[in-house]
């Protein structure tokens, strides 16, 4: 388990600080992650990669000449926020546009797409490549749903080499997509990983058994079997990958880059023993191994496990794979050292921390409403803090177990931002906007993006001129549901928070239309929300990290649905308190 840490909540920031202090020849810190510390060729494409922390060498270890221009780094196992991605992309851009690269996880897709939209609105040519190499996470017919694991390396390396060679944006995207189409990975785990400060691993495997087809965020495997010999494991990995030879290719005479990746606790010596048999099996299948990679390349904290990746080459892909690169954790050939950036003054700083944002004018009624917003957020924080461990436990059954941690980070940041806004005379709408941006930025992950959207949508309707009455609140909740479903594409029945939000929206609107007060309508709708959260136990997940482990989650409610129902009930309690105070007055 992870033993060396200070405050668990500060682990990711302190890790980045130490990484930059020890690798200043390659990287420098910017708000949201790191960028190259060397000058890049003007008007060429910049590759910005990223994801949650906890996977080193991915992602910061791949920043340097011939590889990525920057890495957006989220909290442990949580995608970076859209603000973090935007900040790093702005710092890395040098006139040729930005290609964003990330693993195909719901939170990463949401936040990177939001950052992409923002960059495009500013006139920056921005594209994305989501890596989908994990064969265990979806069938071949649904390759677009597969997650990215160790295959991140092949796609990022090829795209970066293309950018370094002066490829246009279109050509860089095309070659990155080709690399992704020709990359397949499959892995196993013997023990789960334990996050700093946690008492238990995110999942466990019985002694003598191994999880087959696990993810890199602590997601459990799709199957379980006895631990084989090293040769037996090699045979399992190779056999699985050879059932999926990319279209148009055959094994006879093909050239592949094999990557045997350690997930955190398997010793290099053990990996070499496994690779010995992998090499034999590839040769027996008629494949020529090119530049094999054996070691830790995309890890999962202290997880004991390994994955095998096969990258099927053509002449252009092989040239780009072999192109020189010099990054902290991946070096190839010899690069001509580029000059260091002139000074910190040239570094873009998009961080809003410490910057006092302006407060629009608000009426007295709206400022009073802002105080009620703050009270509601405070109640949300209290209930999340009290239930964070249970939310994590629920999430770990079929997901990565970080829902409680992410919700804690998000709601705490939202309360801090709302407190600041109210203290400076903000109206209800502005207070919600401040809270929304803080929640999305600090939480990261899917829940961070969705709660940020929800609060912002309510704030858009409530505004800063009127008291937030029942009609406005109901309309805001409807806007939140629409925004989440439009952007995240989830619908009722997918086993997500939408399964609570939609019936809550409908019940609240019905009560308000019937002439009930906000307290009365919210009370009935909260009961509906709680029942809806409970009912998700009988659903199979159709989206997110739990989808590949659908059967494991049957009988357990969705963590996001549960947290939403808890918060809805907590907010209702603040409405009751307010009504009681008014009656006494």
Q: pLDDT under 50 segments (min length 5)?
A: 345-354
CATH superfamily of the largest domain: Dihydroxyacetone kinase, domain 1
Principal-axis shape: globular
Number of strands: 15
Secondary structure: helix percent: 40-55%
For the biggest sheet, the summary is:
7 strands, mixed
Q: What's the helix count?
A: 17
Q: How much strand? A: 5-15%
Q: What is the subunit arrangement here?
A: single chain
Mean pLDDT: 91
Please report the distance between the alpha carbons of the first and last residues. Answer: 55 Å
Radius of gyration, CA atoms, in whole angstroms: 25 Å
What is the count of distinct domains? Answer: 2
CATH topology of the largest domain: Rossmann fold
What's the CATH class of the largest domain, please?
Answer: Alpha Beta
Structural class: alpha/beta
CATH architecture of the largest domain: 3-Layer(aba) Sandwich
Structural features, described:
- With 585 residues, this protein is of the alpha/beta class.
- It folds into 2 domains: 8-340, Dihydroxyacetone kinase, domain 1 (Rossmann fold), CATH 3.40.50; 364-584, DhaL domain (Serine Threonine Protein Phosphatase 5, Tetratricopeptide repeat).
- 47% of the residues lie in helices and 14% in strands.
- It has helices spanning 11-22, 82-92, 106-121, 152-164, 169-181, 230-242, 268-284, 315-321, 364-396, 403-423, 428-443, 445-462, 470-488, 498-513, 518-535, 550-553, 559-584, and strands at residues 27-30, 33-36, 46-53, 70-76, 98-103, 126-131, 183-191, 209-212, 223-226, 255-262, 288-289, 293-295, 304-312, 325-327, 330-332.
- The strands form 3 sheets. Strands 7, 8, 9, 10, 11, 12 and 13 form a 7-stranded mixed beta sheet that branches.
- Helix 7 (268-284) links the parallel strand 10 and strand 11 (288-289).
- Helix 14 packs parallel to helix 17 (559-584).
- It is globular.
- The termini are far apart.
- The model is unreliable at 345-354 (pLDDT under 50).
């Amino acid at each position: 388990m992870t033993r060396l840490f200070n405050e668990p909540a500060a682990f990711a920031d302190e890790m980045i600080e130490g990484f930059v202090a020890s690798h200043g020849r390659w990287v420098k810190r910017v708000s949201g992650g790191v960028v190259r510390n060397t000058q890049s060729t003007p008007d060429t494409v910049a590759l910005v990669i990223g994801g949650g922390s906890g996977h080193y060498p991915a992602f910061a270890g791949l920043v340097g000449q011939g590889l990525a221009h920057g890495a957006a780094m989220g909290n442990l196992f949580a995608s970076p926020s859209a603000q973090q991605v935007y900040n790093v992309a702005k710092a890395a851009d040098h006139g040729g546009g930005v290609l964003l690269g990330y693993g195909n996880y719901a939170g990463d897709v949401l936040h990177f797409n939001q950052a992409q939209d923002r960059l495009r609105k500013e006139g920056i040519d921005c594209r994305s490549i989501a890596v989908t190499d994990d064969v265990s996470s979806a069938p071949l017919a649904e390759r677009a749903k597969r997650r990215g694991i160790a295959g991140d390396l092949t796609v990022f390396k090829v795209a970066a080499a293309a950018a370094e060679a002066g490829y246009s944006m279109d050509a860089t995207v095309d070659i990155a997509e080709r690399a992704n189409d020709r990359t397949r990975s499959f892995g196993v785990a013997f023990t789960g990983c334990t996050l700093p400060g946690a008492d238990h691993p995110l999942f466990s495997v019985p002694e003598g058994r191994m999880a087959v087809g696990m993810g890199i965020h602590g997601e459990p495997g799709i199957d379980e079997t006895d631990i084989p010999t090293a040769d037996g494991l090699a045979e399992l990995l190779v056999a699985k990958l050879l059932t999926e030879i990319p279209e148009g290719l055959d094994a006879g005479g093909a050239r592949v880059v094999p990557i045997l990746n350690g997930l955190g606790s398997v010793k290099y010596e053990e990996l070499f023993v496994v690779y010995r048999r992998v090499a034999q099996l590839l040769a027996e299948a008629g494949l020529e191994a090119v530049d094999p990679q054996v070691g830790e390349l995309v890890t999962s904290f202290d997880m004991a496990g390994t994955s095998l990746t096969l990258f099927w080459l053509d002449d252009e892909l092989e040239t780009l794979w072999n192109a020189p690169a010099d990054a902290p954790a991946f070096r190839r050939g010899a690069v001509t050292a580029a000059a260091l950036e002139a000074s910190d003054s040239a570094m873009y700083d998009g961080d809003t921390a410490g910057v006092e944002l302006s407060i629009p004018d608000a009426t007295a009624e709206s400022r009073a409403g802002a105080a009620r917003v703050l009270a509601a957020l405070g109640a949300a924080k209290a209930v999340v803090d009290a239930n964070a461990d249970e939310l994590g436990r629920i999430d770990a059954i079929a997901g990565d177990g970080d829902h409680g941690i992410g919700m804690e980070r998000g709601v705490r940041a939202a309360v801090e931002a709302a407190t600041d806004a109210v203290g400076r005379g903000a109206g209800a709408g502005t207070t919600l906007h401040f809270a929304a941006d803080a929640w999305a930025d600090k939480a990261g992950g899917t829940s961070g993006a969705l709660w940020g959207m929800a609060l912002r949508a309510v704030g858009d309707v409530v505004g800063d001129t009127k008291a937030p009455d029942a009609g406005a609140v109901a309309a805001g909740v409807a806007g939140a549901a629409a925004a989440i479903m439009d952007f995240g594409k989830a619908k009722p029945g997918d086993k997500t928070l939408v399964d609570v939000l939609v019936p809550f929206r409908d019940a609240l609107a019905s009560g308000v239309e019937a002439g009930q007060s906000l307290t009365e309508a919210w009370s009935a709708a909260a009961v509906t929300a709680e029942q809806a959260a409970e009912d998700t136990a009988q659903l199979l997940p159709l989206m997110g990290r739990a989808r590949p482990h659908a059967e494991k989650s049957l009988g357990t409610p969705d963590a996001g649905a549960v947290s939403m129902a808890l918060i809805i009930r907590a907010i209702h309690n603040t409405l009751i308190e307010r009504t009681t105070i008014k009656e006494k007055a």
